[in-house]
Amino acid sequence: MRKLARLAMALPLAALLAGCNAVVLSPSGDIAAQQRDLLVFSTVLMLVIILPVMALTVLFAWRYRQSNKTARYEPDWDHSTQLELVIWAAPLLIIIILGAITWTGTHLLDPYRPLERVAAGRPVTKDVKPLEVQVVALDWKWLFIYPEYNVASVNEMAAPVDRPINFKITASAVMNSFYVPALAGMIYAMPGMETKLHAVINKPGDYEGISSNYSGAGFSGMRFRFHGLDQAGFDQWIAKAKAGDAGALDRPAYLALEKPSQNVPVRYYTSVAPDLYRAILNLCVDPNKPDQMCMDKMMAIDAKGGLGKEGINNVRPLLYDKYARRGAVFGPEPYYVSDYCEVPRPGALDAWKSGVSALSPKPAGLTGASLAIPPASLQPPQLSAAQPG
Predict the structure, then answer these.
(1) pLDDT tens digits, one per residue of 36-60
(2) Second label for 366, Cα 20 to 30 Å away, from 133, 149, 151, 387?
């Protein structure tokens, strides 16, 4: 009766578990399927050791219990070469196999590695153009930009079945994690950095995407839908995005979207400002700060050895204040680095070539002691052409 009662109590739990969708073990994308296979194989391989150890633990406890007077008793036994070989050789072999498949899987399933196949036995041909999707993790929603189609969407994305997808992923402020379990493994989204993910969806369907890294108050609502569609369905989705009522996604619209908000409904942007994703990635979106240096320019300076001691008084740190202090500065006036080795502003090159007298000793955007501008006779010849340095 007690066993029946326990069984009856377990039935509701079993019914609840039956309704679970084990998407990780039943994915719809080739990369996620290969990751599933790696997970299952590793688990089975480890069970080859774990199950015998668990069984032998029960067997030894039963066989050598205190009440068993017929058990074999050998108080002077201390070594068995055969037993030592079994105990050490089997786990060592398992570790070698696990290490080999882990090393191979780590390289073959590297999220930065372009796809070589869309499914088993179906290699990617040269005439197939991958779909590029630029992903931005915001507080607390997801922005998807399709540069090929010049549209964007919030909290919804779509992709054609069997077409490789190249994700470029970044974040606006707080680190997040982009994860569509049916598609591929998760990958982090970090401000000022770009991560990549190559994946493909093989079955039409409506899949869930989530943020798998806690990022604040609106984290629980930071979910989106991923639609796997045939080519006709994807074309219809793009047409729906082009007819969206959110308007164009220019820099002011992005700055409004970037502000923290929770449980944001799906919206579509009919067009996207050129180079918006690059500006987001390099933390220089604000159109009211045209002299603000982007991170890639700053890194280019650092890669060439920096500006040296002479530039200490000329260059101030880049300020990237977020929502509480956007527009605030540490000092009596704003200061930003202007440009570095680029095409001069209109008239600047002519002023330089004419003896520099027309140039301000402190160009806009620079503060500090400044440096003396060299005379025309000492100007390098390459300044005669208005080309990026």
Answers:
(1) 999 999 999 999 889 988 999 999 8
(2) 387
What does pLDDT average to over the chain? Answer: 79
Q: What is the largest CA-CA distance in the chain?
A: 110
Of 136, 131, 160, residue with least CA distance to 146: 131
Q: Are strands 117-119 and 122-123 parallel, antiparallel or unpaired?
A: antiparallel
Neighbours of 217 (CB within 10 A): 10
Query: Please, which residues bridge with residue 167 across strands?
Result: 133, 197
* Dihedral angle sign, alpha carbons of residues 111, 113, 114, 118: negative
Q: Three-state DSSP class for 132?
A: strand
Query: In this structure, what token pair is assigned to residue 257?
Result: 């979207």
CA distance 265 to 231: 25
Cα torsion 46, 49, 50, 52 to 10°: value is: 150
Q: At 385, is the secondary structure helix, strand, or coil?
A: coil
Helical packing angle, 30-63 and 81-108, nearest 10°? 160
Nearest to 172 by CA among 147, 200, 194, 205: 194
Distance CA 350, CA 29 (A): 58
- State CA 93 to chain mean position distance: 35
Lowest model confidence (mean pLDDT) among 6-10, 182-186, 260-264 = 6-10
Q: How far apart are CA 120 and CA 48, in angstroms?
A: 28
Please indicate whether residue 87 or residue 356 has the higher confidence score (pLDDT). Answer: 87
Do 118 and 234 form a contact (C-beta atoms < 8 A)? no
Q: What pLDDT is stored for residue 316 in this prediction? A: 45
CB-based contact 241:173 (threshold 8 Å): no
Residue 198 near residue 115, CB atoms below 8 Å: yes
Q: How confident is the model at residue 70 (pLDDT cuts 50, 70, 90)?
A: confident
CA dist 260 to 93, 96, 173, 217, 221, Å?
52, 49, 10, 10, 12
At 311, list the tokens: 């530039």
Q: Is the confidence at residue 323, as pLDDT, over 50?
A: no
Calpha distance 147→181 (Å, rounded): 24
Per cent of the chain over pLDDT 90 is: 45
C-alpha span between 89 and 8 (Å, rounded): 45
